[in-house]
Amino acid sequence: MHSASPDDPVSRVAAELTARHPHVMIPDLTRMRALVDLLGNPQRAYPSIHLTGTNGKTSTARMIDALLRAHDLRTGRYTSPHLESVTERIAIDGEPITPERLGEVWDEIAPLVALVDESHEERMTFFEVGTGLAFAAFADAPVDVAVVEVGLGGAWDATNVIEAGTAVITPVDLDHTQMLGDTVREIAAEKAGIVHAGATLVLAAQHPEAAEPILERAAEVGARVVAEGRDIAVVERRIAVGGQLLTLGTRAATYEDVLLPLHGAHQAHNALLALAAVESFLGGRALDGDVVRDGFAAADSPGRLEIVRSSPTILLDGAHNPAGARALRTALEEAFDFGRLIAVVGMLADKDAAGFLEQLGPVVEHVIATAPRSPRALPADDLAAIAADVLGEDAVSVAQSLPDAIDRAVAEADVAFAETGQLGGVGVLITGSLVTVGEARALLRRMP
Predict the structure, then answer these.
(1) Cα gap 305→314, rounded to integer Å
(2) How many CB atoms are located within 10 Å of the residue 90 CB?
(3) Residue 142 CA to chain centroid, in angstroms?
C-alpha cells in the first residue's frame, strides 16, 4: 500500500478503505441503507443490472457493460476485487474512475460515512463504503445504467439496496462456506436474495440443488426467469484466432458469428448470460446483430486467462476455487498446446487449496507454491505441503515471495525451451487468487 498523500487521491482513498480491516461481517443492510439514505439514495437515479454467483461474475459484468455501451448507453460498472488499483472497481463508460474524481467523491461522502460509523456499534466495512462511493459516482456522472456485481453472497450484500430490475446468477458452487453456508443449496438461497419483486432473472445452468432455492425465490417474488438450457443456449462454439466464434440463441433471436476475444467454454456461457441480460434490460426484443458483435468484440476480462508475456508465454488467471480451476483446465487444454506448463500458485487461507490443485494437476508439470502479499494469504510452505499431498513431492517446489516464484518459473521455462527448442510448447501460469494475479501484473510490467 502506498502512503496516503493529499496529492495522491488513489492512495489516500485506498488507505481510508483499508483502515476498515479487519471488520465484522454482519448479515444485514442497516448501515448500508443508512448511508444511501444520507446520500439521497443515489442508487435510485438509474436502473441497474445486478450479478451474483460463484464464478464468472466479473467477466459477465464486463461483457454486459460492453454490450450496453455498444448500444450507446452510458454505463457505470462496479466489480471487485481490484487487481492493481481501487479505481478499477468503479468504471464509468468502460474506464476506471479517474484518481481526481475518486478523491472528490470520497470527500463528498466521507462526513456521511462518519455519521453512520458513529451511530452503529460496528463501523462500515471497506466494501460497504466502496459501494457507497460507486453509487454516488454513478449518480453524479450521470450514468444511464449501472452493472453491479455483489461482493459476497446476495441477500445481505451491501449492493442489494439497488433492488435491480434485471438480476443475473452465474453458476453456484461451494465457496465462502464459512459465511454463506456449508451446502450448495444454502449458498444458492443466499445468492437468490438479489432477485426482487417483478424482476427478470437470467439464470445460468445450475446444479439441481442450487436451481431449486433460486427458482423458489423467483416464484415467491413473481420474477420472470430466463434460464439457460430452456430459454437461452450456446448453439455453437468454435475456436478462433484470439478467442472463439459463437452462435448464441435466445427466445428473441439467434446471433451468429459472434467473435468473443476470450478463451474457454465458461466464457462462452458467460457471454450468453450477458446477452440475455442486455436483451431483457432493453425490453426483451431482438437486438441488432451487428451491434451485438461490436459489443462482444470490445469485451475483455483482465486477469482471466490473460496473456501478459511471450517468450515464454505467461498467463494470468484468477481462478481460486475448484470450479474455477476446472474451467481453467478445460480452457487450457482447448486453447493452448503446452507440452510443459509451470504453475505459480498463491492462494488465500480460506480457500480449498487441495480441491483447486486436484483440478489443475492434470495440465501442470510443476507447481511453485508461493504467497501473495496479503494478511489472508496461505503461507507458501503450507500450500507446498498441500500440493505435495495432491501432486507428489517431485512436482512441487516453494518460493516464499511471488517475485522469486515468477523468476524461477521463467528460468525453468527458458531451460525447457533450450532442451526442446519448442518455444510455444512451454508456458507459465500464475493463478490461485486474484490478489496473486494483481500483484503479478504489476510485477511483470516492471520486470525486463
Answers:
(1) 10
(2) 25
(3) 24
Question: From residue 119, how far is each of 42, 113, 116, 407 by CA, in Å?
Answer: 21, 10, 5, 50
Task: Give the per-residue pLDDT at 425.
Answer: 85
Distance, C-alpha 197 to centroid of its chain? 26
Cell representation of residue 418: 533450450
Q: Say if residues 237 and 230 touch (Cβ distance below 8 Å).
A: no
Could you tell me the pTM of the whole model? 0.93
Q: What is the structure's pLDDT at 398?
A: 98
CATH for 306-446?
3.90.190.20
The three cell numbers locating residue 44: 435510485
Residue 27 CB burial class (10 angstroms; 0-12, 13-18, ≥19): exposed
Rg (CA), the chain: 22
> For residues 408-436, b (16+ Cβ closer than 10 Å) or e, as one string?
bbbebbeebbeeeeeeebbbbbbbbbbbb
Given a contact cutoff of 8 angstroms between Cβ atoms, the answer to whether 383 and 408 are in contact is: no
Look up residue 272 and give its three cell numbers.
Answer: 450468453
Tell me the CA end-to-end span of the chain in Å, nearest whole number.
23
Considering the chain, tell me which residue range(s) the CATH 3.40.1190.10 domain(s) occupy: 9-297
Please tell me the CATH superfamily of domain 9-297, with its number.
Answer: Mur-like, catalytic domain (3.40.1190.10)
The pLDDT of residue 135 is: 98
299 Cβ contact partners less than 8 Å away, ≥ 6 residues apart: 62, 63, 66, 67, 260, 261, 262, 271
Distance between CA atoms of 66 and 84, rounded to whole angstroms? 21
Note the residue count of the chain. 448
pLDDT (0 to 100) of residue 424:
60
Q: Which residue positions in the chain have pLDDT lower than 70?
A: 1-6, 24, 175-181, 421-424, 448
* Cα–Cα distance, 233 to 227 (Å, whole number): 9
